[in-house]
Amino acid sequence: MTEVHVYPPSEEFVKLANVSGMDAYRKLYREAAEDPDAFWGALAKEHLHWHQPFEQVCDWQPPFAQWFVGGKINACYNCVDRHVLAGHGEKVALLFEGEPGDHRAITYAETLASVSRFANGLLALGLKQGDRAIVYMPMIPEAVFAMLACARLGITHSVVFGGFSAEALKARIQDLGAKLVITADGGWRRGKEIKLKPAVDEALLECPTVENVIVCERTKGDVTMLHGRDHWWHTIEAGQSEHCPAVPLDSEHPLFVLYTSGTTGKPKGILHSTAGYLLQCTKTVNWVFDLKPNDVYWCTADIGWVTGHSYIVYGPMSMGATQVIYEGAPDTPNFDRWWQIVAKYRVTIFYTSPTAIRALIRQGDHWPNGHDLSSLRLLGSVGEPINPAAWEWYHKTIGKSLCPIVDTWWQTETGSILIAPMPGAVPLKPGSGTLPMPGVIAEVVDLKGNPVADNHEGYLVINRPWPSMVRNIWGDPERFHDQYWSKLPGRYFTGDAARRDADGYFWVLGRVDDVLNVSGHRLSTMEVESALVHHPAVAEAAVVGKPHEITGQAVCCFVTLKKGDYDQEALGKELRQWVGHEIGAFARPEEIRFTDALPKTRSGKIMRRLLRELVTNNTVAGDVTTLEDLSILSTLAAQQDDEA
Ligand code: PRX
Known about the structure:
- The protein has a domain at 515-643: 2-Layer Sandwich (GMP Synthetase, Chain A, domain 3), CATH 3.30.300.
- A 7-stranded mixed beta sheet has the order 5-4-17-16-18-19-20, with helices on both faces. A 5-stranded parallel beta sheet has the order 7-6-8-11-12, sandwiched between helices.
- It is built from 20 helices and 30 strands.
- By secondary structure, it is α/β, with parallel strands linked by helices.
- The site of adenosine-5'-monophosphate-propyl ester has 22 residues, from helix 11, strand 20, strand 24 and strand 25.
């Protein structure tokens, strides 16, 4: 690691930064470590609007935490109303760019009016605090309004990424017991209409709890509306008042549930509550993105993922940011669409994923070089480890060697960024998330919980509760305990491997469990396996991640078939489609390999570790003493040689 190039912040950046210099960072870190209650309590009072003050900062009954106990607050009020009341109603909140080229600039005052009208429409439908709503929408301003309107009324929302299939949507609606689905006719992607309403119709055949569906008109494509159940967004808000008081809610009121992949076939509903989540999202926008009133911020995530929740809706809007939201694909109509948008809106802060960066590198420098990117002053990365080569390209070609890159490590469960540089303080090392945020006590340990030596690989754990932490798994407290808190009691087990270097910098290496990270999206091997075994031809399936130049990992499936005659090429294609249908197009496997049997232990467990090794190294050197039938491995390896 001695060869790592270190990039200290420039003097100009330090001068203007929200946190200037290492001493300022260290002071914040020390204060939070020494007296977390005083630290978070003071920030909560300073940065959030309270309808009623809290009495206790943190009540920690492992593994359950409550933050800002006794307080009443509303996330929507904090993200919208307070800015309008402070005289910033005319400030632009959203700069929306549709894929076909349509655009809208929406101020905070207009956001307040739209959200309030829509919230009144929800009240008129009989929805109330404690109900649950699914949001299944394209990246349009109404998706943001839908989330905020729910938050305003105390309706817990669960956003399902528009790329998920009807099957996946159904499972989430059922698990949540949702009463309402908010969707759209469709959205635009790569010049095509991606329909959403038909998936809702298919899902709702088996979702008796849903009473109403609201459909926003975006593409004006054909939709079937079910009388009595389905309503157009514009009729719901028509004639509604622009005044709708935000409901004062308990600090711990469930703001949202976001489903994410775990180590079983069933996605987990990650539950986040209101005040602590909002506070840490707000503060990390200030610390990590160094947001100033005049910045134009752009996070390219979809609101269907946690990044869209924390760093499009709740964090930036609570800070009163002006931000770009873009509906479509980065390559439509050409590979310079993003850079065109950066130049058009004079974007200053740009936050994206390593997969996107790698995909754009491949297309050549002439795309970014054809645009004026001089407005940029800070770049961010999230979702997966960023390889130093991609980091260097991002820094040089996009940031013109002037913009710090904040590599932000966090998870759906952590709610907000836990490890990342404060860009005006912490010198950067390409590929490292650098240092923890104030209040975050992170450690790299062995399975007994003992810290490992510098530069040695171990498990990344967080030793103390933090305000934006996951509160529970929806309807499954046992799984919540087992998954995160049972391995090392009282400490949060992230599921990531990491090492810490002699400077205290964290290097996150990837997952240690059966979770894949494909293009920065989490996918469980079990989820894909159970989709595959639903297919009538499949007897058994084992799924592993294979290193991939662009997407980080790719889904590779080993499949055994039931007796019969198959055209393997056609079946391979069909199975890829099948997984797309069961989960969503983004989960479609890169590779399907047919085999006569799978390597198993004597007790019948599939040895995925060996398959992983096989697809990574083209050979297996690991311990195979528990393997039932060694001949299987040589067959699989021979197949691999043939293919190579
Ligand atoms: O393995 C880590 C990886 O993504 C996982 C979390 O995925 P998800 O809950 O979908 O949230 C993604 C957006 C926050 C982590 O367990 N990961 C995320 N950010 C980084 C990362 N790995 C390395 N470096 C990062 N900056």
